[in-house]
Design a protein that fits this description.
single chain, 309 residues, alpha+beta, Beta-lactamase, Probable Glutaminase Ybgj, Chain: A, domain 2, 13 helices, acetylation, Beta-lactam/transpept-like
């Protein structure tokens, strides 16, 4: 079923587009710094396969931190919650997503949750496989299954750019290795993690994955469950409590839907029992979230009463 342009979404896009001027693209990753800050698009994917959209939804974006939700679901499938949460906590943090501060101040020295970089690195460390290539392929196959698109891969330019500039993430890895939270070669883990973050897709793919989480792990288009209910529930809970970096509390109050953002400007939303949302707007606020994308979701939530609270 083709994705149809929607007049109401077009109007909302025009209303929030001026906000893009108040943000900044993630130029600390050189490849992401090439993005056009005025880009803005949205797709909404319904369980029956219908899709509505506005903007250029075919433009490919890299998942960045949105990949943390998907890798968590895969590792929970592979190893179970008890194994995973022995090494990663479940608590929100008020610190920036790349902060090392809480690792030093909590005991044991494990990351507070899987949505901050330290926690995501531990989760990626748990992906099963005998090599970076094998583990990446397992993750890619899972992403392709959720999105219903076997062509999804990763952007080599972005992965290389992130790998070459990931000094802080390397520091997190060495700290985690010092405290026996991970036992992997740091460069090997960084190779896998930067390729994970560079997995790319369009807004429609993103909305379809959001729709699977919204329906508690069932892909009604395929007519089958692709994620166990409890794993989908865990992932959506983290999206609510930690998904929008250290703006998650404000996001929950103003918008109130499970969502995960990435510094490429992507946002994946999962409106429980209703539909999935994919947004791309690379102009970011000071917390690292799409500045116009947040405003777009706020208007949608108010207009259609989407908050789960």
């Amino acid at each position: 079923m083709p994705c149809q342009s929607n007049q109401e979404l077009d109007v909302l896009i025009r209303k929030v587009s001026p906000y893009t001027k108040h943000g900044k693209v993630a130029d600390y990753i050189p490849a992401l710094g090439k993005a056009n800050p005025s880009d803005l698009s949205i797709a909404i994917h319904y369980p029956d396969g219908m899709c509505i959209s506005a903007g250029n939804i075919e433009k490919k974006i890299t998942l960045q931190s949105i990949s943390k939700v998907i890798s968590l679901a895969l590792v929970l499938l592979d190893r179970g919650p008890d194994y995973v949460f022995d090494s990663v906590g479940m608590e929100p943090t008020g610190d920036p997503f790349n902060s090392i501060a809480k690792l030093e101040s909590v005991s044991p020295n494990r990351p507070l949750n899987p949505m901050i970089n330290a926690g995501a690195l531990v989760v990626t460390h748990m992906i099963k496989g005998n090599s970076v290539e094998q583990r990446l392929q397992r993750l890619l196959s899972f992403v392709q299954k959720l999105a219903g698109d076997s062509t999804i891969s990763y952007c080599e330019e972005v992965a290389r750019s992130e790998f070459e500039t990931a000094y802080l993430n390397r520091s997190l890895c060495y700290f985690l290795k010092q405290h026996q939270v991970i036992d992997e070669n740091v460069e090997q883990l960084m190779d896998l993690y930067t390729k994970q973050c560079a997995i790319q897709m369009n807004c429609l793919n993103l909305a379809r994955i959001g729709q699977v989480f919204a329906m508690d792990g069932i892909d009604l288009k395929l007519g089958k469950r692709v994620i166990p209910h409890d794993i989908a529930r865990i992932c959506k809970t983290f999206m609510v409590t930690c998904g929008m970096y250290n703006a998650s509390g404000e996001f929950a109050i103003k918008i109130g839907i499970p969502a995960k953002s990435g510094v490429s400007g992507g946002i994946m939303g999962a409106v429980p029992g209703k539909f999935g949302i994919g947004i791309f707007g690379p102009s970011l606020d000071e917390k690292g979230n799409s500045i116009a994308g947040i405003k777009l979701l706020e208007m949608l939530s108010k207009e259609y009463n989407l908050s789960m609270f």
